[in-house]
């Protein structure tokens, strides 16, 4: 794709030229051109590499927390929940999760999610969690763990988006994809088992929308 691409009209070309060649990636240690400048995309803040990182992890530089990194945060989260289980805040947050479950509509198999808007895909993630009977406490623990991990991480990205995306990734993983298997007959009459395993993609807009859902549900906890 270049600026002379016939798909762009005159106005779009002008816009692209105005943005292009102007900036390098906003990360201080990176001197790559922004993807707008290099005409690889329309993003104006990050180079291609950091933009992809940001899409996937919710931060252009901080990677997602690994299970081992979250271990002590999870422990702290469980302890907090044990001593606050009956508080108004916890009860209200759990009820908000149940409302998300109830209003998520019917389950849609993972292989039919293609082409759906992020908002609708996020709703279907709640339907999957509900049908997989994931306890609302697990959503709460995911949020608490991510909050604790960020609080104790000296290299954390403290922007709300990183927190939302990290929580959404943990929650998304709790309801795994669609798995089907069925027996087929070959032409020679012998049988074999076919399987279909589809995992919904966990990146981009859907993580932001799911993260916002979680954040709103957790408001009654009154954390920071
Ligand atoms: Zn960069």
How would you describe this structure in keywords?
224 residues, mainly alpha, two-stranded antiparallel ribbon, 2 strands, 7% strand, globular, binds zinc ion
Query: How many helices in DSSP terms?
Result: 8
User: What sequence of helices (H) and strands (E) makes up the elements?
Assistant: HHHHHHHEEH
- For the record, the count of structural domains works out to 2
**How would you sum up the major sheet?**
2 strands, antiparallel
Helical residue percent band? 40-55%
Question: Any idea what the shape is?
Answer: globular
Bound molecules: zinc ion
How is the topology of this model organized?
Layout: H1 10-19, H2 48-57, H3 67-84, H4 88-102, H5 118-131, H6 136-151, H7 160-174, E1 178-185, E2 191-198, H8 205-217
Antiparallel strand pairs: 1-2
This protein binds zinc ion.
Zinc ion (ZN) binds next to helix 2.
Description:
By secondary structure, the chain is mainly alpha-helical. The chain has two domains: 10-57, no CATH class; 67-221, no CATH class. Helices cover 50% and strands 7% of the residues. It has eight helices and two strands; from the N terminus they run H-H-H-H-H-H-H-E-E-H. It has helices spanning 10-19, 48-57, 67-84, 88-102, 118-131, 136-151, 160-174, 205-217, and strands at residues 178-185, 191-198. It has a two-stranded antiparallel ribbon with strand order 1-2. Strand 1 (178-185) and strand 2 (191-198) form a beta hairpin. Helix 3 (67-84) packs across helix 6 and helix 6 (136-151) runs antiparallel to helix 7. The longest helix is centred in the middle third of the chain and has 18 residues, at 67-84. The N and C termini lie far apart (45 Å). The structure holds zinc ion. Zinc ion is lined by residues 25, 27, 30, 32, 46-47, 49-50.
